[in-house]
Amino acid sequence: MPRPLRVTDLRVAYGPVVAVDGVSLEAVPGAVRVLLGPNGAGKSSLLNGVCGIAPRVGGEVHLGEAPLHKQRAHGVARAGVIQVPEGRRVVSPLSVEENLILGQYAARGRRADTEFGTVEAIYELFPRLHSRRKVRAGLLSGGEQQMLAIGRALMGQPEVILLDEPSMGLAPIIVAQVFDCVARIAETGIAVLMVEQNVAALEIASYGYVLEHGRIVVEGPAAELAADPAVMDAYIGAGLATAS
């Protein structure tokens, strides 16, 4: 059974600069949770802290009952928490299919009950990748690269997938397609925590958090956040984008 990801009082700092200051949140199996906030709010630092890429200086991270806050990045991924980083970061000289196969290494030594983990399953989720499977990843469009980055992460059979601004730089019609696939991934039982500046992410999320200056300042059911003019006016004004 997939396990929830629980982050408790997490602090991330780069020397004297505190990027994440005591954040607690949860990602639950079968649901999308979204973390919104303007540039510089600490959203990427939070995901990197969860994954062991950024320096954690306090707090705890658990996958179910398993503590991850003392694990390095490779240990977190092997445990079943896999991040799709901002900017996609596909391996440009390799083909689409070779990039996908690389993703399997995260699952070595661990069995996960997910619908993904084979290239056939990824091609079913992203048919466009099948038609481009022999093409070098560096020649793909931005939307295709985002699909590939998500597919590569799914090949590691994660229990939790962390998405860092998957809509960045994409046309609205492609954003809608990516968000639809994210919702379908959650429906299979995987827990999704998605960092975004695009408030359209609330349409596929069950719960949302708003981060500012490294702290959660608002949280609640996604529909309530989207319907609250005070929240939307405050944070759209602070730099959040819309899908239009």
Describe it for me?
The protein has 244 residues and is α/β, with parallel strands linked by helices. The chain is built from nine helices and ten strands. It has helices spanning 43-51, 73-79, 96-103, 119-125, 127-131, 142-154, 172-187, 222-227, 229-237; strands at 5-14, 17-27, 32-36, 56-63, 66-67, 81-84, 160-164, 191-196, 207-212, 215-221. The strands form two sheets. It has a six-stranded mixed sheet, sandwiched between helices. Strands 2-1-4-5 form a four-stranded antiparallel sheet, with helices on one face. Helix 3 (96-103) packs parallel to helix 6. The mean pLDDT is 89.
What is the helix fraction of residues, given as a range? 25-40%
Question: How far apart lie the N and C ends?
Answer: 38 Å
The main sheet orders its strands as 6-7-8-3-9-10
String of helices and strands: EEEHEEHEHHHHEHEEEHH
Unreliable parts? none
Radius of gyration: 17 Å
With helices defined by DSSP (H or I, 4 residues minimum), what is the helix count?
9
How are the SSEs ordered, and which strands pair?
Blueprint: E1 5-14, E2 17-27, E3 32-36, H1 43-51, E4 56-63, E5 66-67, H2 73-79, E6 81-84, H3 96-103, H4 119-125, H5 127-131, H6 142-154, E7 160-164, H7 172-187, E8 191-196, E9 207-212, E10 215-221, H8 222-227, H9 229-237
Parallel strand pairs: 3-8, 3-9, 6-7, 7-8
Antiparallel strand pairs: 1-2, 1-4, 4-5, 9-10
